[in-house]
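Sorry to interrupt, but I need a hand with the structure work. Go ahead and set the record down below:
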Amino acid sequence: MAPARAAKRPKLEPSTSAAGAPHQRGDDDYVPGNIVEIELCNFMTYDRLVCRPGPRLNLVVGPNGSGKSSLVCAIALALAADPAILGRAASVRAFVKRGEESGHVRLSLRSQDQGRDIGITRKIDTNNKSEWLLDGATVPKKDIIDVINKFNIQINNLTQFLPQDRVCEFAKLTPIQLLEETEKAVGDPNLPVQHRQLIEWSKELRNLQVAVKQKEQTLNNLKALNAEQEKDVQRVRQRDKLLKKAELMKKKLPWLKYDAKKEQFQKVQEEEKIFKKKMDDAAKIWQDAKAPIEGLKKEKTTITSSMKKITNQINQNTNKRREVTDDEIQLSARLKTTLDDIEHLKRHEKNLQQKISKAKEGLAAAEREFQDLQPYEPPRDEMTQLTNDIGHKICGINDLKQRRKEKEWQLSQERENLRKCSDRLMQMESKNNKLLQALQRAGAERINEAYSWVQNNKNMFRGEVYGPVLLEVNVQSKTHAGYLESHVPNYIWRSFITQNASDRDLLVRQLKQYGTPILNYTGGNSIMCEPLNITPEMKQLGITSRLDQEFDAPPAVKNVLITQASVDQSYIGTNQADQSADDVVKLGINDLWTPRNHYRWTRSRYGGHLSANVDSIYPSRLFMCDVNVSDIEMLRSEKDEHTRNVEGMEEALKELQKEQRKLEDEEAEFRKKKEAIADRVRLEKKKREDIQRRIGMVFFSLFFCM
């Protein structure tokens, strides 16, 4: 048997009234709101029970199943509690004792007037109906609740009434929630309201401090700008002064040029007078020297005439001497030539006699050899067959060359496509490297190793694995990239996303050493968000889009960002939205990005109060470039396809080369046979032609000699 459990009596008696004034204990030590008597009839395990608790701490002790919790349930139901808060049943009929049609619970509470008690009775039946009586008179449930509230009894407050079935719920309360519930239970009812106001004022104070710092920064910037502009003003004034001086110099320049030209003109006039005087002196000297020169010219003419006559006489004598010498040389040459011709004729006569005798002997031998030759018929049929075979082989070779040429052109095109695809893939992967380096700088020191392992072991996964998430997201606008980066928690950017449990477990084991988060998404391929609908009211306030509409990603990645970071609940606006931020929250928007600020509104779960948080906008540090991962995968597939096509075409080219080489070898063999036959025909023909030529030459020699 399980050990006995002790149930502590619920603290239903408050130490203060609803107005916050302390209660005074009576002569019997009871305070207003204390339970004086409990009466149960046909309730759960009890047929009938009357219990009178003491004015202070009460303990109910007993073994399991003895009815300790039943007594607590009876007190809660009599104080207008909902059956659901007890954690036992959803309706009151479950609290009627088995076999009975109805039952009741009656509590006697000490009233403000110490002389009497307040009786509260709740009748329940198996039809799930309740009847309320106050001091024996039937009343609505609202009157009972008013009486309970007057004593500040809070059945729904776990710090005041804690059923054993709700202990786990109590353990989940945060310290802030515990403080709020405790204030409601033991303090002034206005204390929680004042506490919330204090929190809101603290937030406003922080916002004002931030605004003051921003204004101070703006003031300092404006002062610095003003100082720089003062320097610019001084430079502008100095420039205007220099421009006026330059304008004055421009006006003086023509006078200075005139003075210089005038001085130069006067110098030239003086030089002209000097040179004119020198010219007159030279003319006088020339006139004085002119008479002797004319006499010398006449004497020179006479001498020149005499020299011409003597020179002509010498030339005539030289020509006559040359003619006589030439005649003598010609006569000597003719005599020598005549003697040589006579000697040559003698030797020629002797040689002719020898040639005639040799020609006669050669003629006889040639005639005998010509008569001994056998008749030769060339193999025309074999030559025709070989010619046809060679023609067929040439046609086959030309056809293969044409096919090979087409295949080589296709191969060159495919190689060019492969090169372009490889270049584009390399360029896009270099962007991936930049994004990985950005993640390293952000704290993911071993993200490169994790990414390399996933890329090199894709064959081990059952489904598609995405990651890191930063590489999978493609944002077109730098401004929106800053919004998205600030909105999404940092751990998501370096996470890998799987789509089934086995891949998740495999990645957890393998990437544990790299400190990389793993997220498992098991939804479909459809995006889990409502379509974007910008109403006219939103447009009027400057709202233009929603954060989930400003980036592209695979469906699994986008759904993770929606579920984990609620990007589908964050809106984007212009500067106009920044100015109208107080009106935006009225449209039900709780998150807004503008070019200058990020607004977030939250509503308290307890008091329903609305609070706002405003943050400054910072530029993106991770999104240095936009990478579309689907394009990378597509390019990789396209590169693999081009590589396979190139390899197939190269193999086909090798086969065509082998076939062409075979046909060329066969064609060369046929040509070799044909040339051998032609050589034999030419040899036989040459033999006959040589003999006939020899005979003809002999006849010609004999004829010439005779």
Remarks:
- Residues 1-21 have pLDDT under 50 and may be disordered.
